[in-house]
């Protein structure tokens, strides 16, 4: 048995057949005839000196050798494909692929994108709105905008301002609930998308910061922040809104912040890309625009009392 690797075409044929557990489906994927694919696998077996498939009447099964070989070939071709896509992206200075959460995209990014598009007509933006943690290299994504705590090891990451939350409601509801104490009787809306924060940044924490002994349990719960904000705009109730999610509705008068007490979390939105990619013109342009846009509306914090959740007592005296 030779230590030399078999031909790449033979390994590719094996990987596809092992993934599909079908010579016919693998041949279709690789755009070859089943006979040609079978020949490639046979040559791999001759090179290895043992079979990698049991050929049954209407199916195939991996042998012990095939089961040992399959994970490595799959990972190897995944890595090759990722490297090829990454190399191709280096030649593309006109397309920028960005991933961000659905709520940030809907409430903050989308309403502002015309500004970036006007300043950079040479860049075509492509968005993937998902909360799934992507692999920038494997998934062909240039930039990720993510919210949370912790570090982004091995990546270029720059954090935006700390985030705060504050009660927001329609002006009509604000007339009905004019004091923090009156909110104990208000219909409260719960944004469940930030339950992962530690310490929590939620209604019980806000009431404790306000010196009110109240642990709300009833109300409408939303898994997406933008849905909770939309419900507040519709007058359904009062939501503890995150700054970037509420800013457009507040500035345009659909929502108001009648109480000047906000609670702050150490979690941040971060601009993330592969290490070294931050110098590429299209990525640097979007980073600079992203950070500048945040600063444009920093004045919304003026006049607020902002208390970090770490400084809020566990109980109201």
TrEMBL record:
Its protein name is: DNA-binding transcriptional activator GcvA
Enumerate the PANTHER family for this protein.
Answer: HTH-TYPE TRANSCRIPTIONAL REGULATOR (PTHR30537), HTH-TYPE TRANSCRIPTIONAL REGULATOR TRPI (PTHR30537:SF74)
Report the family membership: Belongs to the LysR transcriptional regulatory family.
InterPro entries noted in UniProt: LysR-type_TF_proteobact-type (IPR058163), LysR_HTH_N (IPR000847), LysR_subst-bd (IPR005119), WH-like_DNA-bd_sf (IPR036388), WH_DNA-bd_sf (IPR036390)
Keywords, A to Z, come to: DNA-binding, Transcription, Transcription regulation
Q: Cite the NCBIfam families for this sequence.
A: PRK11139.1
User: What lineage, starting at the top, does this entry show?
Assistant: Bacteria, Pseudomonadati, Pseudomonadota, Alphaproteobacteria, Rhodobacterales
> Which molecular function GO terms apply here?
DNA-binding transcription factor activity; sequence-specific DNA binding
Picking any one GO biological process from the record gives: DNA-templated transcription
Do the record's keywords include Transcription regulation?
Answer: yes
Q: Where is the HTH lysR-type domain?
A: 6-63
Query: One Pfam match, by short name?
Result: LysR_substrate
> Can the keyword RNA-binding be found in this entry's annotation?
no
């Amino acid at each position: 048995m030779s230590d030399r690797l078999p031909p790449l075409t033979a390994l590719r044929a094996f990987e596809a057949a092992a993934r599909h557990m079908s010579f016919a489906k693998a041949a279709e994927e690789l755009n070859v005839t089943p006979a040609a694919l079978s020949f490639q696998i046979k040559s791999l077996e001759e090179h290895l000196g043992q079979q990698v498939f049991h050929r049954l009447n209407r199916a195939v099964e991996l042998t012990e050798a095939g089961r040992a070989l399959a994970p490595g070939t799959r990972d190897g071709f995944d890595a090759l494909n990722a490297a090829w896509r990454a190399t191709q992206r280096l030649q593309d200075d006109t397309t920028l692929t960005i991933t961000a959460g659905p709520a940030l995209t809907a409430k903050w990014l989308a309403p502002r994108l015309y500004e970036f598009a006007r300043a950079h007509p040479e860049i075509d933006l492509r968005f993937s709105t998902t909360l799934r943690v992507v692999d920038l290299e494997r998934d062909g994504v240039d930039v990720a905008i993510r919210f949370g705590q912790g570090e982004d090891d091995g990546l270029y990451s720059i954090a935006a301002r700390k985030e705060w939350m504050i009660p927001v409601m329609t002006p009509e509801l604000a007339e009905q609930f004019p004091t923090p104490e009156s909110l104990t009787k208000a219909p409260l809306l719960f944004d469940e998308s930030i339950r992962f924060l530690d310490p929590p940044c939620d209604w019980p924490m806000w009431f404790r910061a306000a010196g009110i002994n109240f642990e709300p349990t009833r109300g409408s719960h939303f898994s997406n922040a933008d849905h909770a904000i939309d419900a507040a705009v519709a007058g359904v109730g009062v939501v503890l809104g995150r700054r970037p999610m509420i800013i457009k509705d507040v500035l345009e008068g659909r929502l108001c912040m009648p109480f000047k007490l906000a609670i702050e979390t150490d979690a941040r939105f971060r601009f993330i890309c592969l290490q070294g990619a931050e110098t590429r013109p299209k990525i640097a342009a979007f980073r600079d625009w992203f950070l500048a846009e945040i600063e444009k509306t920093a004045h919304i914090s003026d006049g607020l009392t902002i208390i970090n959740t770490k400084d809020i007592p566990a109980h109201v005296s």
